[in-house]
Amino acid sequence: MKEAMFYTRESGDRVRCGLCRFRCLIVDGARGICGVRENRNGVLHSLVYGKLCAENIDPIEKKPLFHVMPGSRSFSIATVGCNFRCRHCQNYSISQVPRNSRIAGEDRTPEMIVKSALDGHCRSIAYTYTEPTMFFELAYDTARLARKAGLANVFVTNGYISKEALATIAPYLDAANIDLKGFSEEFYREIVHARLSEVLDSIIEYRKQGIWLELTTLIIPGLNDSERELQGIAAFIVDNLGADTPWHVSQFYPTYQLTDRPRTPPETLRRARDIGLAAGLRYVYEGNVPGRGGENTVCPDCAALLIERYGYVITTNRIVNGACPDCNKTISGIGM
Ligand code: SF4
Prior knowledge:
binds iron/sulfur cluster; 24% strand; 19 strands
């Protein structure tokens, strides 16, 4: 447990949390929407500091980040808790723990995390699986140490962090994969229990901070797969983030509270990819359907196959010094 960053005292013993865009007003003895920040006598605490529920060495492709040091290892950590309550959460056993439960996790310090990353020959630390904003204090302390040790830091996030929290960690954050889960307020309200406008604003803030961005949309049949929504997402990315921003369109499978929908047909992902490319995006990837060619990186100028993937595994990488070997086109990203 650690005193939280980003809160103000209100009248009585109430506090206002400023870590994420919900900005919860929390009375003494209560927790915020996320269930991992608690007001104790007018002092807000992070209950998850140093309490890891997951730590693994993953390929960076698993985040997914396809344009950040391809083929490298990323030390991936999480604590329990999330500020969203997505009905289709794929990590619900650790993100959606009861909001008033005891916090479980293995004790780890930032120093231990950085050492594990170095010992595991990782080139980055990924704050992932659940929502990294919810363990901000641990991520911030770890990211600063990681940077000193020569490691990159990457967030895999729902994009609901407050501007002030993002500005604080941005100097140490190299890249982020942000979920843009749909493109209607109705979808965000009913499936995610959050607001689309805040997510869009946050994504633009990430870009303003100079953080490399890749976006992911899990395509759910009948809920967010209309032409209008997919075109809306693609146009938002082109207009606000630039055509070099990778967009991952991923297959949904029935899980948690959303079991009345089928898996996303591969043809739908191909259609989404075509919509993204037609809108001007240069890198659109199909996720969770290995072996269909939609995971490969192709030169946007000469169409040469540059990186061939099967799932999270790179089988061929022809990029030389960050460029296409055939036409010398620079391929955007970090350490390409
Ligand atoms: S981080 Fe948690 S307590 Fe703070 S505003 Fe967000 S949901 Fe509320």
